[in-house]
Specification:
It is built from 15 helices and 2 strands. With about 400 residues, it is mainly alpha-helical. It has a domain at about 25-70 and about 95-175 and about 275-394: Na+/H+ antiporter like fold (Up-down Bundle), CATH 1.20.1530.10. The relative contact order is 0.17.
């Protein structure tokens, strides 16, 4: 029986998948921008808002394509995030306090500072304040893809730090969505959700390894959470916490790892590109200097471009000075500073929170513009800083 686990090999495989996902995200976002700014624009919006019903006997449930992607497919994305987080906590880079404290503190700084920057710029515009969480996010696929472009000169420990920070950042985004972007609560459906979650927990405690039961109950959980008023994607994370990680013959054959492995490519190749495609609909004919310099766009751009580096670097520095942790031997604070710009690539999660924060199309589009500009400039800045650093060292 082989219970050995090659961490570096697993991480390298993960990076390879994320790099491909990041490239696909970029391609589909660009494709959406091209279509929306072409004669095919009407076809794009016709598809986006086409209603697709599900009818089972007397039961009928209807959502448009945009909602199916944002509420349905993205729940699978959050399910995978939950699986990754659980695995990292149980046996990965977050499995001990010593390993977790550095990326956790850096992630907290990387969420607090962008929110503060955004609020300072938008405090006199109450209609914009619900967007405070938009620049707090990090797109793990994009940020890792940019880091991998730098080649083998980047130490593995820096890549692991980015991975750990991004996973904790995702957890922060999940908590923000659950507590700050929840509509009116239906206690009936919330109680149904709690009952299904309790069943899933009992199933786990009983040692059941029947994947189809977890998936079936997960579908019910998703529906009840959606109807409760809590965002449906939270169901994905809750379901992930109940998936067993018991090993049979090897450390890689647990249900958790099987699902993570099977769904990771599905999410990277289909779910995230579809999300990017249906949420990157910026019409450049509507872009003006006023929209570029609006407090909303500016707050997001500066939150991502300045807030992220300041928060991550400062909190890391404070942690080092107070001896809460020390950096890996082959990583310096200058490396963290360069890496922190890559964390300013908000894209996927920022676009997702944007859809929850605003309903006014003008605010939605202005926010998307800020997300695109802030993410692109952050990516370029991070790449150039790290490239200069590692070229100098080599």
């Amino acid at each position: 029986m082989n219970n050995t686990f090659d961490l570096s090999h697993a991480i390298k495989n993960f990076f390879s998948r994320e790099e491909k996902s990041g490239v696909l995200l970029l391609l589909f976002a660009m494709l959406a921008l091209i279509i929306v700014n072409s004669p095919l624009q009407s076809l794009y919006f016709e598809i986006k808002y086409t209603y697709i019903p599900i009818n089972i006997g007397d039961f009928s449930f209807t959502k448009n394509v945009s909602h199916w992607v944002n509420d349905g497919l993205m729940a699978i994305f959050f399910f995978v995030i939950g699986l990754e987080l659980k695995r990292e906590i149980l046996e990965g880079e977050l499995s001990s306090f010593d390993r977790m404290v550095l990326p956790a503190i850096a992630a907290i700084g990387g969420m607090l500072a962008p929110a503060v920057v955004y609020v300072l710029i938008n405090y006199s515009n109450p209609e914009n304040m619900s967007g405070w969480a938009i620049p707090t996010a990090t797109d793990i696929a994009f940020s890792l893809a940019v880091l991998i472009l730098l080649g083998k000169s980047v130490p593995l420990s820096l890549k692991v730090f980015l991975l750990s920070l991004a996973i904790i950042d995702d957890l922060g985004a999940v908590l923000i969505i659950a507590f700050f972007y929840t509509s009116e609560i239906s206690m009936i459906y919330l109680s149904y959700s709690a009952a299904v979650l309790a069943l899933l927990i009992l199933l786990n405690l009983s040692g059941s390894q029947k994947m189809y039961i977890y998936i079936l109950l997960g579908i019910f959980l998703w529906y009840f959470v959606l109807k409760s008023g809590v965002h449906a994607t939270i169901a994905g994370v809750l379901l992930a916490t109940t998936i067993p990680n018991n090993h049979k013959n090897s450390i890689d054959d647990s249900m958790l790892k099987q699902l993570e492995h099977k769904l990771h490519n599905f999410v990277g190749i289909l779910v995230l590109p579809m999300f990017a495609f249906f949420n990157s609909d910026i019409n450049f004919s509507d872009v003006t200097l006023d929209s570029l310099y609006s407090p909303l766009s500016l707050g997001i751009v500066l939150g991502l471009l300045l807030g992220k580096p300041i928060g991550i670097t400062f909190f890391t520095y404070i942690g080092m000075k107070t001896k809460l942790f020390k950096l890996p031997d082959d990583v310096t604070l200058k490396d963290i500073f360069g890496l922190s710009f890559l964390c300013g690539i908000g894209f996927t999660m920022s676009l997702f929170i944007n859809g929850l924060a605003f309903s006014d199309p003008v605010l939605v589009d202005s926010s998307k513009l800020g997300i695109f500009i802030g993410s692109i400039v952050s990516a370029v800045a991070g790449y150039l800083i790290l490239k200069s650093r590692y070229q100098t060292n080599s």
